[in-house]
Amino acid sequence: MEIIINVAREKIRRKMLYITTILGIIVVMVFSTDMGSLTIDGRLLNDYYVLIPILINVVNFLAGAIALAMSVSTIPNEYERRTSHLIWSRGISQSRYHMNLALGNALISWLSGIILYITLGVFAVVDGYSDMLGYIGLAALIMLIYTAIICMLTTALSIKLPPIVTGIIMIVVFVGGAFRNILILISATATGMGGTIIKRIIKIFPDLAGLSRQAGNLVQGKAVDLRVMVMGLLIIGTAGLGILFFRRKEA
Questions:
Q1: Considering the entire predicted model, what is its pTM?
Q2: pLDDT confidence of 34, banded at 50, 70, 90?
Q3: 221 φ, ψ (degrees, to nearest 5)
């Protein structure tokens, strides 16, 4: 637990939570602007009920980006500073050390995401939808799965790969997962062997778009597909196994 708290404190010292707060305020300001007379299903686009799925996608994407940025270099930096050798002297295994670092990244990512979700709550109250606050709180739980996927995958890769390589891979995975539905629609026009390969690659991406969609459905009172969340938890578990079993030669 001490390692987890220390990781969180270090991230806070780097002003990440302050940056998150500013991003949240910007999100509220941008989407509070007048959308004119644009409508969806007969409701104005600036109607909070219509807007909430879009806001959730934006907020989850920001939270995921923050999770990636905080996780990509945590383990490499610990080894570069030789902090790891202090840990070995205390009898803590490498697997436990890596997992604690991953959980520290997840903790601060969750705090950042919660701050962003608080802005959604403020937006709801301002627009007269305070009855949605409870559902927004439940939707934030799905955000925890969303960000944990990014944290755990990024941390697992960073054990074996240089930060720049991990970053490139995870940006592709993150963006691919966040826009998975759009990529599936685009790939539907692809034919032949190339099209088949593209479709299979897209299916490898974690369904981050699906998680955001379920969060939006939850707030709007629509049906929620629990399978998407279960698959997200399975990805977290798989990445967690990678963190436990991957080793660094520097140890």
A1: 0.85
A2: low
A3: 80, 20
